[in-house]
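User: I'm new to structure prediction. If I give you an amino acid sequence, what do you actually give back? Let's try with this one:
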Amino acid sequence: MSKTSYIFYCFFLIQFLSCRMPAQPTTTLGFEVRVADDLQADFPEDGRVFIFLNNSNRRSLITSWPSPGLQVFARNVEDWTGAEPLLLDDTQVWTQKADFILSGVPEGIWYVQVVWDHDREESRIGATGNMYSPVTRIEVGDTDVFEIELSEQFGPLEVVDHKFVREVDQVSESLSQFWDKEVHVKASVLLPASWYDEPDRKYPVRYNIAGYGGRYTRVNRLVNSEEFFDWWMSDDAPQMIQVFLDGEGPFGDSYQMDSDNSGPYGTNLVEELIPLIERDFRGLGTPESRFVDGCSTGGWVSLALQLYYPDFFNGVWSYSPDAIEFENYQLVNIYKDENEYVNEWGNLRPLARDIYGDPRMTVKDFLQFENVLGWSDTYVTSGSQFSAHTALYSPKGADGLPAPMFDPHTGVIDREVAEHWKKYDMKILLQENWPELGPKLQGKIYIWMGDMDNFYLNPATRAFDDFIQRTTNPKSDATIVFEPMQGHCAGFDHREILEMMWAKWEGKE
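Assistant: Good question. You get back a string of structure tokens that encode the predicted 3D arrangement of the chain. For your 509 residues, that looks like this:
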């Protein structure tokens, strides 16, 4: 080798190795977290601490949904009394969804928010009583330890104080027995305009299920909407009771169904909560007078309630439902594919897109974020979307937690767990039980789906529709609408749904 060639070779080797070496830390960053004096009394000593970092300022960085630029670190902490500062830096092991380690935060302006999540009763990071700091602007340099104070707490949920709104707080016998402790289930009720004027009248009932994690306090938005509430109080509005169910469950949204992990939420709903509501608020109390609707998670739940309890409800309006069959669990066939994160061509699967098809996020990125949220350092306990799916569809694992259908880190699908999911595959349910279920579902199914659903939910609804179109004895009369170039839940409208329910109740359809 000539001297010139040798020099070139060495230069190339140095450049190659430098590209492959991990980036060296640019800072030594840490946070000294203190608890405000007024929050130190009865401070919960065990919890999970979160650091949210973003290079753009926002009113709050705390979220259970990843967003561009957001960096998140989390770890469990035991025996912190709150009396002394808690130092957070890279001497500790972190679960993270970040582009760098703490000691590698690029220099410059950042915004930080710290959360102390000690509540295991509610599944979400924003549970009542959890503590957090205000968003703090910091300038990261060579060596920095910033003081952060936990001075705020998430407050309790509150239903608007209004003559036509009631809050329901039920102690569930079935769920309390399952968990061996007192379990409360909540809902809100919006009464019709004639409710006080006609004290002997009984009413049909709309049961509304929210999108993922929606709480019973969403009634507040309708009451505070001048346009909607003026109509609701007018003579033109349906004389129905509206009930807004709560999405809270032990591992995220309960999905209002029985599961091996969360307990008998479906049993509670149809045997305890609904009878209580219809008794206390003058519902008619008959299957013919019950209607159910929702969008996204609410779309899945409402359709499942109608299909799994076909004699209990008289109609479903399901909009943009979560995957209702699992050969198309978004873009994954869980019964045949090998990996949740990577497709057969080796590409990362997208989780979300805009209505023109441009991907916004991958499944792997989203699940890495859920792994950070979970106190088990996995999505199984995140309280987010895949946590709730796992709790509902999966068997209980050897560790007492829901068994993951796919590995939290590699995405490899567990075929045995995937088989267990068939119990809640609605296409399989109807395929195997159509002679019995078909007659009970006639005139009861309305599904709306945007053909550019932002979460790739339209393929599952298409497959479901393909089965529905081929049914015989009876031939299904389900209405399934696919609207071109429409995204997730774009067709959902409270007033329109109420008017369709009322038309069915009055027999005008």
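You can read the tokens as a compact description of the fold. Here is one thing that stands out. Residues 1-26 have pLDDT under 50 and may be disordered.
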